[in-house]
Amino acid sequence: MKGILNNNIREKILKAFLDTAILARLEYKAMNGYELTTVFMKKFSAATSTSTVYATLYAMERNGLIKGRYNRRSRIYELTEKGKKTLEDTRNNLEEIQTFTKTLLK
Fold first, then answer.
1. What global pTM score does this model have?
2. CA nearest to 84, candidates 14, 17, 24
3. Which of 10, 11, 4, 66 minimizes the C-alpha distance to 33?
4. What is the 8-class DSSP label of residue 4?
5. DSSP output for 34-100
6. DSSP per residue, 6-38
7. pLDDT tens digits for 55-106?
8. How would residue 38 be classed by pLDDT, with cut points 50, 70 and 90?
9. 2: part of which helix (H) or strand (E)?
10. Distance spanning both ends of the chain, measured CA to CA
């Protein structure tokens, strides 16, 4: 996702779609909040604070999208069935999301 987008724009987009980005990453591997923060920085060149990631994780867990379990010193998160369905629904509506986003910017 490198190119003409500056870091400020990348960070705003990631923050706006943080819950969806978390679901997408957890689809491949259960992770803790620090790992997710690191992945976002490496993959998208966008920094998001660890506290923002953890606050989002806690909210997602309360909403039943993910579940956490303790593994030694950290809490590992994984998708629930509801989280998988939410991610699938989002992917199925990407075109509508893109159209809405373009409309916002006109």
1. 0.85
2. 24
3. 66
4. S
5. HHHHHHHHHHHS----HHHHHHHHHHHHHTTSEEEEEETTEEEEEE-HHHHHHHHHHHHTHHHHHHH
6. -HHHHHHHHHHTHHHHHHHHHHH--B-HHHHHH
7. 999 999 999 999 999 988 899 999 999 999 999 999 999 899 889 888 988 8
8. very high
9. none
10. 22
Share of the chain above pLDDT 70, in %: 94
HSE-CB at 39 with a 13 A cutoff on CA atoms is 17
CA-CA distance, 81 to 66, in Å (whole number)? 8
Distances (CA, A) of 104 to 88, 98, 100: 24, 10, 6
pLDDT (0 to 100) of residue 6? 74
Structure tokens at 77: 């998160």
